[in-house]
Design a protein that fits this description.
mainly alpha, 9 helices, globular, transmembrane helix, transmembrane, membrane, Histidine kinase N-terminal 7TM region domain-containing protein
Length: 252
């Protein structure tokens, strides 16, 4: 039994759950604002990220895992994790108040829909059994890698254009960008290592890797940091703007 891995998983899980609950409460207080909708998207994304932690925890406690018992789980892992990235992307658009062009919107949503068809095909046609390399390889190269790069691009571009930077915007941007960069390393790690073994064993190959486990846990922590400090940045910014308006409108 690997106590350190269990502790890390527990801490990441607890931190993620508490942050998700906090974001949902913030959204519930004022669901009409874009800032609040961003928090709801991010709460969903963190919740979906926990899905991938289950086998990792089982590996840590040295529980015997039968491949066939987890076929459905592994088949759902890819679309569920990709959906988490979509929620991260949508949350970023909301909190940065980015209005994408119509053509770009069409391309992005077409890509999302294609991803749904791709994952659905593998789930239905293969009946949840991963027998080829197409899901881990194509899934990473065609969907995971591009959406992570898209998240990095949008976040960095927003930060560069930002006129008033503070510690909150720096930590928020840093958390999201570092998580995406770390995720890209994991994506290529998965591609490299799954080709060595039969495709049915792809998760067991990476699940037993200390590098994959630690970086996956760090990713959840980085997401929490990024989301939380961007939330603080916009909360302070809106408060300052509101206070400034009240001061100007107040009779002298």
């Amino acid at each position: 039994m690997d106590i350190s891995r269990i502790i890390l998983s527990g801490l990441a899980l607890t931190l993620g759950i508490l942050t998700s609950v906090y974001f949902v409460v913030c959204w519930w207080r004022d669901p009409s604002k874009p800032h609040a909708r961003a928090l709801l998207f991010w709460a969903f994304s963190l919740f979906l990220m926990y899905w991938f932690q289950i086998p990792a925890i089982l590996f840590s406690i040295r529980k015997v895992i039968v491949v066939s018992d987890f076929n459905l789980f592994f088949a759902l892992t890819f679309p569920i994790t990709f959906l988490a990235f979509i929620f991260i992307y949508l949350g970023i658009l909301q909190i940065f108040e980015i209005q994408t062009e119509r053509g770009k919107n069409f391309f992005t949503w077409s890509w999302f829909i294609f991803a749904i068809f791709f994952f659905t095909y593998h789930f239905i046609a293969r009946k949840g059994v991963i027998e080829t390399y197409s899901l881990p390889i194509v899934g990473n190269l065609l969907f995971y890698v591009p959406i992570r790069m898209l998240i990095i691009f949008i976040t960095v571009r927003w930060f560069i254009k930002l006129k008033s930077r503070n510690i909150y915007s720096i930590l928020g941007t840093g958390g999201i960008v570092m998580e995406s960069a770390l995720g890209l390393l994991r994506n290529f790690f998965v591609i490299k290592n799954t080709l060595i073994y039969p495709p049915q064993l792809w998760y067991f190959v990476i699940g037993s890797s200390r590098f994959f486990f630690i970086t996956q846990t760090i990713s959840i922590v980085l997401l929490v940091i990024g989301f939380y400090f961007l939330h603080l940045y916009y909360h302070r910014l809106r408060t300052a703007i509101h206070f400034s308006k009240e001061t100007k409108e107040r009779p002298q």
